[in-house]
Amino acid sequence: MNTIVLETTEQGDVGVDVYQRLSNDRVLFISGEINDKVATDISATLLLKNNENRKDKITLFINSPGGHLRNVFMIFDMMKIIKAPVETICIGAAMDAAAILLSAGKKGMRLATKNSFISVGQLEHNWSSQFSMTDVQKIMQITEKDNKSMMEVFAKTTGKPLSTILNDFDRRVFMNAVRAQKYGFIDKVVSFGKGK
Amino acid sequence: MGKNQEHDHDLEKPSTLGYDETYIKLSKHRVIFINEDITHQLATELSALLLYFDNQDQEEPIEMYINSVGGGGDALYNIYDIMQLISAPIKTVCLGKCYSAAAVILAAGSKGYRYAFKHSNIMIHGLQCSFPILGYDITNSKNYHQFLRENNTNIMKILANHTKQPLAKIHKDCQEDMWLDPVKARSYGIIDHII
Q: What is the residue range of A119's domain?
């Protein structure tokens, strides 16, 4: 689909990419799988927006099935480092690692739209090739550690004890916006505009 | 995300016959054309455009011309929620076909602003899924099944809300594919006018 819009300037109409245009207004989008490119782009843009202005909020729209934990923690850490408050809004879905980003917004600024949902489960490892036993053990250790750090983040952001989190997310759980609010992933469900 | 559109544009020029410019120029008139499956990517592009147009002017209607066979549930929720969030009225027009998710988007336009072309076709149905997923253990499957049922009810509620049909009737009708021509769709409440 066409994402270029025409902006009227002194030099006449200029075509601008709508993502670029919205990022000028401090609105960013995370969509689809969080791969290296998305993670680097978002981290870099967060840093830029923070350097431009440290007072105004940065809005992050999230609709993602997750991604590699290294990439997600890259964005997470950047969100924690910068001074500007980050508002997160879930539209559609925030699954697994994407739920980390959603719950990592500034307290009171974590939102979700009415029909969106969150899904959290244990970390899954995608075995794409054959490994020797030693390698498998190493990978298992890393994955276990990653899983623990993910659950620790959830414990911190939802304000629940780690044992409860580990128990609840032993198997995959699906939550709609209202349940996610009760659980503490988000602070508010966004209500719709008038006359709709 | 933030891809280099201008660069892509140059590469694709010979194959697209240069019609891309039409859509760019139409964006000045707040017109969006949807002619692909409802996917994550489309949902994000659409929400970015809708937010941008809403930012520019909250009174002037935004026009969405739809010709799509539908797509995924979460992408639909993404688009639907953004459509309801923004203040500007949204005019939806069914060009050729609006099936499943695309029909929900058509019906979700502002009241009195939903149109269909005379020879277009519309189809609504419930959530489709390939349920027994190999490798999911029984607790996972239970949660997932429950979640799908909730989702299905949610979509039915959205349709009932916008068509003003009773929820039970929508549930019954959507158990199978329900095909509607524009006249039927108008009496069902999915659209308001036939062009």
A: 4-189
Residue A187 DSSP one-character state: S
Q: Is A32 on the interface with B (CB under 8 A)?
A: yes
- Report which DSSP code applies to B71: B
Using CB atoms within 10 Å of the CB of residue B141, give its burial: 0 to 12 exposed, 13 to 18 middle, 19+ buried: middle
Each domain of chain B, given as residue ranges in start order, spans: 5-128+174-187
Rounded to the nearest angstrom, the minimum Cα separation between A18 and chain B is 6
Ramachandran sector of residue A27 (left: φ over 0; alpha: ψ -120 to 50; beta: rest): beta
Per-residue tens of pLDDT for chain B, all 195 residues: 444 444 555 554 444 556 777 888 888 888 999 888 898 889 999 999 999 999 888 889 999 999 998 888 888 999 999 998 888 999 999 988 899 899 999 999 998 899 999 888 999 888 887 666 666 777 777 888 888 888 889 889 999 989 988 999 988 888 888 898 889 889 998 999 988
**Does residue A16 belong to the interface with chain B, where contact is any CB pair within 8 Å?**
no
Q: What is d(CA B159, CA B161) in angstroms, rounded to the nearest whole number?
A: 5
CB atoms within 10 A of CB A29: 26
Angstrom distance (rounded) from CA B105 to CA B94: 10
CATH number (domain holding residue A117): 3.90.226.10
Overall CATH class of domain B5-128+174-187? alpha beta
Q: Which two tokens stand for residue B162?
A: 């916008």
**A contact residues 113-172, partner B, Cβ 8 Å cutoff:** 113-117, 119, 121, 171-172
CA distance A169 to A118: 12
Q: Does A60 touch chain B (CB under 8 A)?
A: no
In a domain, A195, yes or no: no
Interchain proximity B41–A42, CB inside 8 Å = no
The structure tokens listed for B78 are 């993404």
CB contact under 8 Å between A32 and B41, yes or no, is: yes
Q: Is B144's Cβ below 8 Å from some Cβ in A?
A: yes
Q: Which residues of B are catalytic?
A: 100, 125
